[in-house]
Design brief:
mainly alpha, 15 helices, globular
């Protein structure tokens, strides 16, 4: 990768890592479906100025439901139900685990032996993390966050099947999909008028966090990431996402005082090692791809 593109990949990883802190702050003012609806209402505003990409709605809607609505509804519910932001930032990165599995089924991309080994190591780490369910981590929060990673993995495969779209336009128009189901869920769980009340009562910190999630972590970050995926092999771009848990965990420890015991640290280490084995290419393979 060119140095400028490396800088972009690192920037996206930092933005996504800080998004977990922003999520926790925003959830102090809004419910998970309200936050999902607001995030993507903001992210979809540029659709007023950007032409719809040459992608059929039958492809755009499933992409928006998995990559955005499913991923973030479950992620926000997970954090709201006791999943610490730093740990959540690691758990959702198991999307690499699920992406490899789903790509094998849907795209016929047979995983290499080292990827299978990496998935086994990452799974062992998840088991250790699951064992630490207790005062600061609920079982339901952990489970919901894992479902978020599954949804992201499905969305990655759907995104890969779309032929070279304009990524900014695609991300903006896909953002039109989540608000409707999120608002319907909010009306069911929170009450029809709760969003207006929550918005009126929200703190400036909460509102700023929503803007960060909508404009920076969604439109900007996903457009940059998608563009990198289109210009480089997945194995070249995907490893940079491993920075996200480090940023998320460190930021959460500073802002919320999140702490990690020995068993949880061991589980986190295993997950990161497993993910690294999955997404980091061997030197000879990478040279072949680039050559």
């Amino acid at each position: 990768m060119r140095p400028f593109d490396v800088a972009l990949a690192v920037l996206v990883a930092v933005v996504w890592g800080l998004a977990f802190v922003a999520t926790k702050l925003a959830l102090q003012s809004f419910s998970p479906p309200e936050l999902t609806a607001l995030r993507f209402l903001i992210a979809s505003v540029p659709a007023l100025f950007l032409a719809r990409p040459p992608v059929a709605w039958r492809a755009l809607v499933p992409l928006g439901l998995t990559l955005f609505a499913g991923q973030f509804l479950f992620q926000f519910f997970g954090i709201a139900h006791g999943m610490p932001p730093g740990l959540a930032s690691l758990t959702v990165q198991t999307q690499a685990f699920f992406t490899v599995l789903f790509a094998a089924v849907a795209l016929g991309e047979t995983p290499a032996l080292r990827q299978v080994a990496g998935m086994a190591v990452a799974f062992a780490g998840l088991v250790l993390i699951a064992v630490t369910v207790g005062a600061d981590q609920s079982a339901i929060g952990f489970g919901l966050t894992l479902v978020s990673a599954v949804s992201w993995g499905v969305g990655n495969v759907l995104l890969k099947r779309i032929e070279r779209p304009a990524m900014l336009s695609l991300m903006v128009w896909a953002s039109l999909v989540p608000p409707l189901p999120s608002l319907a869920l909010s009306a069911l769980l929170d009450g029809p008028g709760d969003l207006a009340r929550a918005f009126a009562d929200a703190s400036w910190v909460g509102l700023g966090a929503v803007l960060y999630l909508g404009l920076v972590a969604t439109v900007l970050a996903y457009a940059l990431w998608g563009d990198l995926l289109r210009r480089y092999p997945v194995a070249t771009v995907a490893p940079w996402a491993l920075i996200v848990p480090f940023v998320g965990a460190y930021a959460s420890s500073l802002v919320f005082g999140e702490r990690f015991g020995p068993l949880r640290l061991a589980g986190m280490a295993l997950v990161l090692v497993g993910l690294a084995v999955i997404v980091l290419p061997r030197g000879r393979d990478e040279a072949t791809r680039q050559g």
